User: Which sequence fits this backbone?
């Protein structure tokens, strides 16, 4: 699968922070993690720090799958609003899922600090805005539900939005908890830290066969090496579909641009994350270098040729939409790119064992806040591996 167009910003900007050998021998280990993106890196570091002998394999260079295309917004708010998630999974599971995503941002911050990873992590509030007046009652209900579960959120009416931004929206929710990161640097930093704890990392090594054995798994690579392990963790991102077909959600295409550095935009309240309800999706953030990232404009297909042919047109649309929000900030596009993106029926990730693969744990950080799910996956899979009880694992199980 072609996960991204050429030149997603992070991998161009960062180059190759580290290179790893491909696997050239047979290996026996406790856990083998398939995928060296942000999800695989988070799971691997949790396992390695727990003393589990772990090997990470990636068919590409590390961090150059979807992770290099991710715009790096860290949100507790999943693609499905709390009021809708309650209808889908019930109030207890919905509330707990939101709490876990909120907690994941703080855990990621602590991890980056503790492991001294320079990855542009910043705490940022987030503005979720309505497009139409008709949505105002839903925003009020969403506000009340979130407040009730202890989330620090304010309701902005049109006047409150106008007082803080150069645009107007009929309603918006301003949340304190959010963040942003360079996911590519974070991935490399996590793997470097994992290596210090005994992790082995091999890239440009593709898993071509996965066999369940009586006591674990046997994996064959494209160059004929064999890995035997107690467990495999499938953190292969949207390419996990090769094993799971439609069970893991639906794929689409999405677009993003990053600007040349701009002078600080004083009319952008706290340089918060901004995102809009409905379709076509629109979201924006700033970077530590003063650039602006604008993303969205999703399309319901995954054909890479068709997807990439639309990049220039989508970039123009994103610039136009940014201009409507910030008319005094002319934005020059430095890079524009596209990527494949996945959604699940309830907006929640799939994490854990699949009935067809009893010795495999899946870590599928799908959705607009896949990175926060990847943090949760790291903890759940580590706990499963160590036979510890994790009372949240059931929220993300297959077949829910
Ligand atoms: C444009 C865009 C914007 C996004 N913005 C955000 C955002 O703001 N916030 C957010 O949280 N999420 C965002 N996402 C989603 C984001 O992509 C995911 O959250 C995250 O990057 C997924 O990481 P991953 O490690 O699961 O997948 P990947 O980064 O794709 O890593 C999976 C790895 O598995 C490897 N692999 C696959 N098959 C095999 C095999 N057979 N053998 C060996 N290796 C294999 C691949 O090479 C790949 O490197 C965005 C996605 C896109 C496309």
Assistant:
């Amino acid at each position: 699968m072609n996960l991204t167009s050429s030149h997603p910003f992070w991998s161009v900007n960062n180059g190759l922070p580290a290179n790893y050998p491909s696997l050239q021998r047979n290996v026996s280990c406790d856990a083998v993690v398939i995928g060296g993106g942000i999800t695989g890196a988070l799971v691997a570091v949790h396992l390695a720090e727990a003393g589990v002998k772990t090997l990470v394999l990636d068919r590409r260079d590390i961090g150059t799958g979807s992770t290099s295309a991710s715009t790096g917004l860290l949100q507790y708010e999943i693609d499905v609003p709390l009021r809708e998630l309650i209808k889908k999974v019930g109030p207890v599971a919905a509330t707990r899922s939101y709490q876990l995503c909120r907690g994941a941002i703080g855990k990621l911050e602590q991890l980056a600090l503790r492991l001294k990873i320079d990855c542009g992590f910043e705490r940022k509030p987030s503005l979720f805005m309505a497009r139409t007046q008709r949505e105002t009652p839903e925003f009020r209900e969403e506000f009340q539900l979130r407040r009730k579960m202890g989330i620090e959120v304010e309701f902005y009416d049109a006047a409150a939005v106008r007082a803080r931004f150069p645009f107007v929206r009929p309603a918006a929710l301003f949340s304190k908890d959010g963040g942003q990161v360079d996911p590519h640097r974070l991935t490399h930093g996590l793997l470097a830290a994992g290596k210090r704890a005994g992790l082995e990392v091999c890239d440009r090594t593709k898993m071509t066969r996965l066999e369940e054995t009586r006591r674990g798994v046997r994996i064959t690579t494209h160059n004929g090496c064999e890995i035997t392990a107690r467990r495999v963790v499938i953190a292969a991102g949207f390419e996990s579909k090769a094993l799971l077909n439609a069970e893991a959600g639906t794929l689409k295409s999405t677009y993003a641009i990053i600007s040349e550095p701009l002078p600080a935009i004083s009319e952008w309240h706290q340089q918060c994350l901004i995102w809009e309800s409905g379709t076509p999706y629109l979201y924006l953030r700033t970077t530590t270098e003063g650039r602006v990232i604008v993303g969205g404009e999703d399309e319901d297909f995954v054909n890479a040729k068709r997807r990439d042919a639309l990049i220039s047109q989508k970039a123009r649309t994103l610039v136009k939409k940014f201009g409507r929000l910030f008319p005094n900030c002319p934005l020059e596009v430095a890079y524009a790119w596209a990527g494949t993106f996945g959604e699940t029926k309830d907006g929640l990730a799939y994490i854990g064992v699949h009935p067809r693969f009893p010795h495999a744990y899946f870590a599928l950080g799908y959705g607009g806040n896949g990175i926060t799910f990847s943090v949760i996956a790291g903890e759940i899979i580590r706990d499963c591996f160590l036979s510890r009880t994790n009372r949240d694992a059931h929220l993300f199980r297959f077949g829910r």
